[in-house]
Amino acid sequence: MKISLFILKILSVTATNLIVLEFVHIATVSAAAISLNNDHYISLNVERQIVANSLTNIYIASGNSNNSSLIQGKYALYQGSCSSSSIETINDTMRQINEIYISTNTTTTSYKLSWRVPATDRLDQQQQFDAKNTDNDTGSYAKNCLYLKNEADILVAKSNPYVLQSEHQKKRRSHAEFKHMYLDAVDFDKSRKNAECTLATSKDQRIGIIGAGISGLFSAYLLDQVDFHNYEILEATSRVGGRIHTAYFDDSQTVYQEMGAMRLPVEIQYENETLPITDTKLVFQVAEELNLLNEESHQIEFIPWYQHRSNNLYFKAGFRFPDGRIPTVGETQANPNLTVDSGVASLKQEVLNATSSFTSHEWFHLMSEDLYAAHRKALDEGFDDWSEWGWLHNKLGLSLNATNYATGMAAIQLWQWMYDIFVFSSSKWRTIQGGMENFPRAFLPQIGEEKITYRAPVSRLEYDDEIQKVTVKWKAAEDEEDSVKGNKGSNSNSNLEEHYQSRTYDNVIVSAPFSVLRTWHLPKKLDYMIREAIHNLAYSHGCKVALEFDERFWEQQYKRSIQGGCDDTDLLSETTCYPVNNIGHNGPAAVLASYVEGDLALSLAAMTEQQHVERVLEDFKELHGNLVEKHYTGKYVRKCYSLEPFQSGTYAIPYTGQHKLYMPSYFKIDHGLVFVGEHTDIKHGWISAALASAIRGVVMLLVEFGHISEAKHILNRYNITSINI
């Protein structure tokens, strides 16, 4: 943002200590980079256009190369019409904003203030309307200026003129409970600071980030972008990425499978239109930025991913052709008679009729254009008050059988179900060549490995009210071998406290999922509702099993070559997906042979690893016969998230009412803590949610520290319109 820089240059001092001033225009500069090059001066600068009831920065710079004390002292900052030029006018018609003390301990001193601009109804008539200067078409008020007077009532500085615009209309909520469902930086600032104008902190605030998952890494990246470099990341494991986890079966990293996030929805073909999944654009934008910054070794290359392809198998109720072949998805689409009814055809139609309103032109367009606007509409229509089961059966009158067919009697909130219907209607998907883990790894050259402390499994957060700092504590991670063998570690008679390591920070960004955080020692006086969210936010459970084969036999079947995509079956293994990297190449490859979610995943997790893998192999043999045993290398990876000590669940899946109950608590800094992660966003289980939460968390810290211009820069850069600032 460019502003004109004006200074009042001190020309001389009379015997009566009257400072003679000259109003000088020196440059048009960036508000964040004011040039100071005069012997004696005070400059006062602000954005050229300011919106009422918003946040902005005021820049005051003072300097004197002769170390004079002329400009040292206490000053009063006023707001008012630019026509004022005398101290009498200031006292009579202006609003005092704040007082500031200017020191001459250094040759050049600059001050940055955070100003919470009042709403228009708090400005007097002279400030609100001036017939000569008001632009009624834009809703702008008269040009205003800021003024600075010293303790002797001498006017020493006057800012560049700025236009005060009427405040933006905030999104109206039909219910009082929805008022704080999204971050309003102005309201947040009011809740944190009594004065409307406060001094910004230095940028050397010490910030801790717990977790090197995607929200933690992106938080660090954002802080670096606005010159907050005094941070460090504490990661419980020996790798970055969190629930973005690629399992590599060889050193070349060409045989791999995704044990965490595996796909990105791009667009939907709907009624002869192409609707973009707009929130995924944030992922692509961040990847593009990293590609511009990084060397070739850390480039992110997107390749197609397929939900279903025509040659994927459709295996329901054991139906096969007389020759033993299993129908393909394409064959069943061409001939619906190949699908086995099993008594569900009528139920399916009943569900389609009932849910048609969720797949309407209005909903799909709104979710494509502005997901947060769609979420607001869903709240206004009461969807957060219903589970998908309750809505279909109790609200729409669907039969119990049809409701069970649609939902499995799940208690998931209706909004999450609507979002899933929207996203999984995608006709175009992407993944990352070489593994999704290349995305979090691409942050490392920008952040620096030295910023990350690995194997630091945090388990205690303490807050000191006197010094207002957070102490983060952890015990040394057990070796993986010891964990498997079940070693207990320290002697039971030893002092439990002495095993903790600790570091202290001004603020801490917590990106660990609540499913893990609920087992930690937390500050005793933590806000009731954030504590409730930590303890009770619901999480989904999932298990994945990947199997390696010495060749891609599924691609080698004449006319039925399976090249990526997922089979549609009713087997216990549920989802089976084939690798999309290096399609058509010879050599080994890994199949995601089973991806199971929900309560069944808990049952599978309770099995021994050998039992689980063998059960999946048996299901895969149902699909491909003896080829499975012939080409299976014996290598596998099994990951059940309920067994993962630092994840304890796949992703948040809030119960009815938990969005509107818990979300306002995520927009507070409590005991120095800021909570981020996909669980704190309106959509769950997607990388875009984690990235969006990091933006929100960093913006909260910047507002807390008084660096409004930097917060606006981040919001504008990533086109975040859901946060009012």
Overview of this protein structure:
It is a single chain. This protein is α+β, with helices and mostly antiparallel strands and 725 residues long. It has four domains: 2-169, Immunoglobulin-like (Sandwich); 197-240 and 443-484 and 498-538 and 651-717, FAD/NAD(P)-binding domain (3-Layer(bba) Sandwich), CATH 3.50.50.60; 246-312 and 540-643, Alpha-Beta Complex (Polyamine Oxidase, Chain A, domain 2), CATH 3.90.660.10; 344-425. Helices cover 27% and strands 26% of the residues. It is built from 23 helices and 32 strands. A six-stranded antiparallel β-sheet has the order 2-1-3-5-8-12, with helices on one face. α3 crosses α22 (687-705). It is elongated.
